[in-house]
Design brief:
11 helices; single chain; binds alpha-L-arabinofuranose; elongated; 6-stranded mixed β-sheet; alpha/beta; 6-stranded parallel β-sheet
Length: 329
């Protein structure tokens, strides 16, 4: 059995030997917990912060050897990475899945090899829930519901009887897209005076959203009346704002209400400047929570199956410069 070199053990060793304050020697290579992470890619500012959070936690001084694979937005690359981790006999696999479906076989292979899989960020839709030990991430449906509740207040307090909405979706089939889309769809069903003018696929990227919105606007005979753009992440919001402004629209007060998910520092700045009306938080800092699950497993415990992270929303009225400066991502 491997002797684990985890941080608490390291700290007690330092105290016991009276060398607190000195740099301890690195743990022996074969005592490190080997973690294989399969990341989606680097499509958004959120994703970059998420990878950094994982890399900051799974360090050699923390007792880990990290094998990090960037799937460059392709599920087949993630499947290949997981198979590679199985061959490398890692201790744990952390999967940040591109989309929900298509994981049954490869996760069964990991289970058969005795490697626990932790699903982080988005969820997997598998027939057998024992194929993963825990999920750490956001409640995307709840994020969407909070955004829609804000939109109801916005329409009500602004005396807006009708709303013309453009919906920019994220990567199709991902939990973030499914949850945020479902919340808007439900609201559209219950508000007969809200019109879905267009639904575009932004794939969670700034460049694709910019092109899609630009293309949509260029195809209209007369410039459409737009009240709201519901963007399923910050980078989509940045791309949409750029295309709308180039076409002569105003975003923010007196113009189009842009709703965005993630609330990264860049988005909060645009929110404080009034261009983004609602920034709904999606917290990418999942490294510590994921390591927490591994610690429980290492000590022989059974982690909770679901770990949702707390999230807030921001508007110009609730934001300050200090809050943005203190933002970690
Ligand atoms: O799954 C989380 C989503 O994926 C974030 O909202 C988005 O920015 C990312 O690409």
């Amino acid at each position: 059995m491997k002797i684990r070199w985890i941080l608490p053990a390291l700290i007690s060793a330092m105290i016991l030997s009276g060398c607190a304050g000195q740099t301890p020697s690195s743990p022996p290579e074969n005592a490190l917990i080997v973690v294989g992470i399969s990341q989606v890619g680097a499509e958004s500012d959120w994703r970059v912060a998420n990878s950094e959070s994982m890399k900051a936690v799974f360090t050699e001084s923390g007792g880990y050897r990290l094998l990090f694979e960037d799937a460059k937005q392709k599920q087949e690359n993630q499947i290949t990475a997981i198979r590679k981790f199985i061959q490398q006999k890692v201790d744990y696999i952390v999967l940040l899945p591109l989309r929900e479906t298509g994981w049954d076989s490869v996760l069964q292979e990991a289970k058969d090899a005795g490697i626990p899989v932790i699903v982080a960020d988005r969820m997997v839709d598998v027939k057998d829930e024992t194929l993963f030990v825990a999920h750490v991430g956001s409640n995307f449906r709840m994020e969407g519901e909070k955004a829609v509740a804000w939109l109801e207040d916005y329409a009500h307090s602004g005396g807006k009887e009708t709303l013309n909405i453009i919906h920019i979706q994220g990567t199709m089939g991902s939990t973030a897209q499914i949850g945020r889309t479902a919340a808007l769809e439900q609201a559209l069903e219950s508000h007969a005076d809200w019109t879905l003018q267009a639904r575009l696929d932004g794939d969670f990227t700034q460049a694709k959203t910019y092109e899609e919105v630009k293309q949509y606007l260029s195809e209209q005979e007369v410039p459409p009346e737009i009240d709201v753009v519901y963007c399923e992440n910050d980078n989509e919001a940045f791309g949409a704002i750029q295309a709308l402004e180039e076409a002569g629209y105003t975003c923010g007060e007196g113009g189009i209400a842009v709703i965005s998910f993630d609330a990264t520092r860049n988005c909060l700045t645009q929110c404080l400047n009034g261009k983004i009306s609602l920034a709904m938080e999606c917290n990418p800092l999942l490294g510590p929570l994921t390591a927490g699950v591994i610690r429980i497993l290492e000590s022989g415990g059974t982690p909770e199956k679901e770990h949702y992270i707390e999230e807030r929303s921001f508007t110009k009225e609730t934001l300050t410069e200090e809050m943005i400066a203190a933002r970690l991502y």
